[in-house]
Design brief:
Distance between the termini: 95 Å
Strand content: under 5%
Structural class: mainly alpha
Keywords: Membrane, Transmembrane, Transmembrane helix
Helix content: over 70%
Main location: membrane
CATH architecture of one domain: Up-down Bundle
Subcellular location: Membrane
Mean pLDDT: 75
Membrane topology: Multi-pass membrane protein
Radius of gyration: 44 Å
CATH class of one domain: Mainly Alpha
Order of helices and strands: HHHHHHHHHHHHHHHHHH
InterPro entries: MFS_trans_sf
Number of strands: 0
CATH topology of one domain: Growth Hormone, Chain: A
Shape: elongated
Low-confidence stretches: 185-219, 246-258, 528-548
Largest sheet: none
Number of helices: 18
Length: 548
C-alpha cells in the first residue's frame, strides 16, 4: 500500500506539472495574440491619417499644406514614447504598461474628430504618437521575454499585423466616406425638392451646413471604429495583467542571468545606425515612388498609384510569409537574404528605373526585401546579448530618426536637382550601407566567442599533451618494473637450481657429516648452523676438506 500511495502521489505531481506547462503555453499564446491585435490597431491608427487628412484640415480651418506639423508632432511623440517606454518597461509590469498605452491611444482617437484647433490637434497627435512608441518598444521586448530563442516567428507576426492594419485603414475610411456620400446625395435630393417649394433663400440656408455635418459624421465614425477596437485590446491587456502579474518579473530575472555581450553597447549602436538607414530607405521609397514614376517614367496617375501599391503589397505579403520562414531559417540567414535582394533590386532601380519593366520588377523585389529586416534584426541581436527596455527603445528611436530625417533630406535634394533620380540613388546608397554594416556587426558579435573557443581549444590541447606525457612516463616506469621483476624471477630460479644441485651432492656423500650443512647454508645465503643448533665455526669447512 505504501508503494501504491507513492506511485499515486508521483502521478498526481506529474499531472500537476503538465497542467502548469499547458497553462504556461496557453498564456504565452494569449500574449502573442494580444500583441498582434495591438499592432494591427496601431497600423490602422497610423494609416488612417492619410485618407482623413483633408477632413482634419477642414475641421481646424486650415489648408492641407498648412498642417504638416501634425506629422512632426506625432513623430516627436513617438520618439519620446520610445524613450520613456524603454525606461518604464524595466520598472513595471509589461502588460500593464501596454494596457495603459493602448488606453491612451484610444482616448486620443476618440477626441481627434471633435478637435477644431490646430495646436490641440498637434498635441493630440503627439500623445497618440507617444502611446504608439511605448507599444512599439514594449511589444518587441515582451515578445522576446515571452518566447526567448523562439521569438523569431512571433516578431514577424507582430510586424505583419502592423502592415495588415495599415492596409485595412484606408478601406475603413473609404467605407465611411462612401456612406457619407450616399447620405449627401440623399440630402441634396431633399434640398432640391425644398428649393422648388420654398425658394432660393431657404435653399441656400439649408444646403450650406449639410455637407459639413455629413463630413464630420463620416470622419467621426472612422476614428471611433479604430478607437473602439484599440480600447477592446487594452482590456485584454488588463486581463493578462491580472492573470500573469509576475510573468514579466520572472522573464526579466531569467534574462538577467544571461551575460551581456562583451561589446554590448557598440553592437547596439551599430544596430541603431543600421535601423536608421533601413527604415529611412523604406519610408522614403514608399513616399516618393509615386512622384518618381510620374516624373521620370512618365506614368499616369493610376499607373503610379498601382506601382506604389505593388511596393507595399509585396512588403506586406513577404512579412506574412516570413512568419513561416522564421521557423525554418535563422535570423542571420533571413537578414542576409533580404540584404542581397535589396542590394540587387536597388542597383537595378538606380541605373535602369527609366525602363518601366525594371521599375515594376525592382519595386516589387525591393518591397519584399525590406519586409523582414527589422523583426529579424531584433531576433538576431537577442541571440548574443540581453535586449531590455532601454535597448529596444534605442532601436525604435533609430528607426524613427531615419523615418524623419532621410525623407526630408531626399525631398530637399530632389527640389534642388530636378533631373536626378534622388530617390533611386538613395535606395542604392542605403542598401550598400546596410550590406556593409551587417557583416561588421556579425563579426563583432561572434568575435569574443571565437576568441574564447580558441582559448578553450588551446587549453584542451595542453591538457592532452600533458596527459600523453604522463602516460608515456607511466609506461616507462611500468617497463622498468617489468624488467626488474624478470630479473628477480631469474635470480630466484638460479637459487633454486643451486640449492637442488647442492642437495644432490650432499646426498651422494657417504655419511651425514655435520660439517656439510654449514657449507650448504653458506652457499644458499643462510647462516651456518651445526647439528646441535649453535652457529658453525670457521674450521668446519677445513675439517670437511681433511676428511676428504
Amino acid at each position: 500500500p505504501a508503494e501504491e500511495d507513492a506511485e499515486a502521489a508521483a502521478a498526481a505531481g506529474g499531472g500537476w506539472r503538465c497542467g502548469r506547462c499547458a497553462d504556461g503555453a496557453a498564456l504565452r499564446w494569449c500574449i502573442s495574440g494580444t500583441l498582434c491585435a495591438s499592432f494591427l490597431g496601431v497600423g490602422m491608427s497610423i494609416a488612417v491619417l492619410g485618407p482623413t487628412f483633408p477632413t482634419l484640415a477642414a475641421n481646424v480651418g486650415k489648408n492641407v499644406s498648412d498642417i504638416y506639423y501634425i506629422f512632426v508632432g506625432r513623430s516627436l511623440g513617438s520618439l519620446g514614447g520610445s524613450v520613456v517606454g524603454g525606461v518604464l518597461f524595466d520598472c513595471m509590469n509589461a502588460t500593464l504598461l501596454l494596457a495603459f498605452s493602448m488606453l491612451g491611444t484610444a482616448a486620443g482617437l476618440y477626441v481627434v474628430p471633435w478637435c477644431n484647433q490646430s495646436l490641440l490637434l498637434t498635441i493630440l497627435m503627439s500623445v497618440i504618437g507617444g502611446s504608439m512608441g511605448i507599444l512599439d518598444t514594449g511589444g518587441n521586448v515582451l515578445a522576446l521575454y515571452t518566447w526567448g530563442s523562439e521569438a523569431g516567428p512571433h516578431l514577424q507576426a507582430l510586424h505583419f499585423s502592423f502592415a495588415a492594419g495599415a492596409f485595412l485603414a484606408p478601406m475603413v475610411a473609404q467605407m465611411d466616406l462612401g456612406s457619407s456620400e450616399s447620405e449627401e446625395l440623399a440630402g441634396a435630393e431633399k434640398t432640391n425638392q425644398s428649393v422648388l417649394k420654398s425658394g432660393p433663400t431657404a435653399s441656400a440656408a439649408s444646403s450650406t451646413p449639410a455637407p459639413n455635418d455629413h463630413r464630420n459624421e463620416s470622419f467621426l465614425w472612422s476614428y471611433i471604429f479604430i478607437g473602439t477596437y484599440i480600447l477592446l485590446v487594452s482590456i485584454f491587456f488588463f486581463v493578462l495583467f491580472s492573470k500573469s502579474s509576475s510573468a514579466k518579473d520572472k522573464s526579466k530575472a531569467s534574462a538577467q542571468k544571461d551575460k551581456l555581450a562583451k561589446y554590448h553597447w557598440l553592437l547596439v549602436g551599430l544596430l541603431f545606425v543600421f535601423f536608421l538607414f533601413y527604415v529611412g530607405a523604406e519610408v522614403t521609397y514608399g513616399s516618393y515612388v509615386y512622384t518618381h514614376a510620374m516624373v521620370f517614367a512618365e506614368m499616369k496617375e493610376s499607373e503610379a498609384a498601382a506601382l506604389n501599391s505593388v511596393f507595399w503589397g509585396a512588403f506586406a505579403m513577404c512579412r506574412g510569409a516570413a512568419i513561416f520562414g522564421a521557423t525554418l531559417l535563422s535570423p542571420a540567414t533571413m537578414i542576409v537574404m533580404s540584404l542581397l535582394c535589396s542590394a540587387a533590386s536597388s542597383t537595378g532601380l538606380a541605373f535602369f528605373s527609366h525602363f518601366r519593366a525594371a521599375l515594376w520588377a525592382g519595386s516589387a523585389v525591393y518591397g519584399a526585401s525590406m519586409a523582414t529586416i527589422f523583426p529579424s534584426g531584433i531576433a538576431w541581436i537577442e541571440q548574443y546579448t540581453v535586449v531590455e527596455g532601454k535597448t529596444a527603445s534605442l532601436f525604435v528611436v533609430g528607426a524613427a530618426l531615419g523615418e524623419m530625417c532621410i525623407p526630408v533630406a531626399v525631398g530637399y535634394l530632389q527640389g534642388r536637382f530636378h533631373h536626378v533620380p534622388v530617390v533611386m540613388y538613395t535606395a542604392f546608397v542605403t542598401s550598400m550601407v546596410t550590406v556593409l554594416l551587417f557583416p561588421a556587426m556579425y563579426k563583432l558579435a561572434n568575435w569574443p566567442q571565437q576568441r574564447d573557443s580558441q582559448e578553450v581549444n588551446d587549453r584542451e590541447t595542453r591538457k592532452t599533451l600533458l596527459l600523453n606525457s604522463r602516460l608515456t612516463e607511466d609506461e616507462e616506469e611500468e617497463e622498468h618494473m617489468r624488467e626488474w621483476n624478470d630479473a628477480d624471477f631469474e635470480v630466484v630460479e638460479m637459487n633454486d637450481e643451486l640449492k637442488n644441485s647442492l642437495m644432490d651432492t650432499s646426498q651422494r656423500i657417504p655419511g651425514d657429516s655435520p660439517a656439510v650443512q654449514p657449507h650448504l647454508d653458506n652457499a644458499l645465503g643462510d647462516p651456518p648452523v651445526v647439528a646441535d643448533g649453535s652457529p658453525g665455526r670457521q674450521n668446519g669447512s677445513i675439517d670437511w676438506e681433511k676428511s676428504e
